Amino acid sequence: MGRTVDVVELVDRAREGQPRAVARLISLVEDAGPRLREVARALAPFTGHAQVVGLTGAPGVGKSTSTSALVTAYRERGERVGVLAVDPSSPFSGGALLGDRVRMGEHATDPGVFIRSMATRGHLGGLSWAVPQALRVLDAAGCDVVLVETVGVGQSEVEVVSLADTTVVLLAPGMGDGIQAAKAGILEIADVFVVNKADRDGADATARDLKHMISMGRRERTDVLWRPPVVKTVAAGGDGVADVVDAIDAHRAWLHDHGELDRRRARRAASEIEAIAVERLRSGFGGLRGGAGLEALAERVVAGELDPYAAADRLVEGLGA
Ligand SMILES: Nc1nc2c(ncn2[C@@H]2O[C@H](COP(=O)(O)OP(=O)(O)O)[C@@H](O)[C@H]2O)c(=O)[nH]1
Ligand SMILES: [Mg+2]
After folding, report:
1. Does the record's keyword annotation contain Transferase (predicted)?
2. 151-209, pLDDT tens digit by residue?
3. Which residue out of 56, 61, 65 has the highest number of ligand 1 atoms within 8 Å of its CB and is therefore the one to mutate?
4. CB-CB neighbours of 49 under 10 Å
């Protein structure tokens, strides 16, 4: 094939579990280069197998430590595991983040584990398009479970929900913002709560507060049948990690029994399509020159010559031309 990669062959090799093929495919989708479409097409028939588990929470609660402990637990069951560590603020891309590399070090030579760190800064839409494509690569590579670690700040914790079959929200005692964050919306997104650092004072109180909030929430939302369990862990020592695996399994079974798995996956595909379409529109705007371009229109809005709605109409019309 000369210097150009044969994407179909790469996908074959990834399915055989060759780490370099997996890494290469993720790079191809991350770069959003001309091969992206070809990669997506080649992957499509082999996706839909992996169980996608999102882990989110404030920086320092122990997401990476927990992810590593979960990898160990799934490997003990003989499952192939993928890890995507997504840090929107990281200036690095492609390679592993140093901290994660150290923590994930014990899995680095395990052929049944694929680990990838992704920085989303600089990509319009952040998580919204590159991560789902990387997920597809790991899925097609035969991962039984893919763990997606995202920092629970701003939008990313909402976005992880659209990616994951099961969303695990981590809290830690002594991080006062924990319960506040819960009030601000993590209650809606969590399928499983983990109170990590249970070796520290206050873990019981945090777990109790959470359970109380969950029971309050249920009174208002009687249609919601799944009650998120609250699991205490000491991820650093592995305590309670088996309970997290059990909770994730139970949630998966519940999703399956209630037709929710298909619904969530359809929602995920819909947001993926939307993100790609929006991205395409955006890049189209960039190509519009002269008076029809975004900058020229913006100037006219600032000058009061056009209102933003009329300007938006022109922009969209410009794409159609
Ligand atoms: N005491 C204690 N420390 C922990 C525990 N789990 C993780 N840590 C420590 O907390 C710090 C942050 O962990 P990390 O996994 O990087 O958190 P992340 O930012 O959420 O990914 C590290 O120094 C870990 O060693 C735990 O269960 N107990
Ligand atoms: Mg981390």
Report:
1. yes
2. 765 555 446 667 899 999 999 997 665 555 555 577 778 899 999 999 999 999 999 98
3. 65
4. 13
Dihedral class, residue 70 (left if φ above 0, else alpha if ψ from -120 to 50, else beta) = alpha
CA 134 to chain centroid: 10
User: Measured between alpha carbons, how far is 10 from 24 in angstroms, rounded to an integer?
Assistant: 8
Give me the phi and psi of 92, to 5 degrees please: -90, 155
Shortest CA distance to 244 belongs to which of 58, 49, 60, 68? 68
Tell me the fold of 48-257. Answer: Rossmann fold (3.40.50)
Residue 164 Cα to ligand 1 middle (Å): 23
Pocket of ligand 1 (CB under 6 A): 57, 59-65, 99, 196-197, 199-200, 234-236
- pLDDT tens per residue, range 250-295: 999 999 999 999 998 998 888 888 878 887 888 788 777 777 888 8
- Which atom of ligand 1 has the smallest separation from the CA of 100? 16
**69/25 Cα distance (integer angstroms):** 26
For the entire predicted model, the pTM comes to 0.86
Q: Sketch the domain layout of the chain as residue ranges.
A: 48-257, 272-319
Question: Residue of the nearest CA to atom 2 in ligand 1?
Answer: 197
CB 229 within 8 A of CB 247: yes
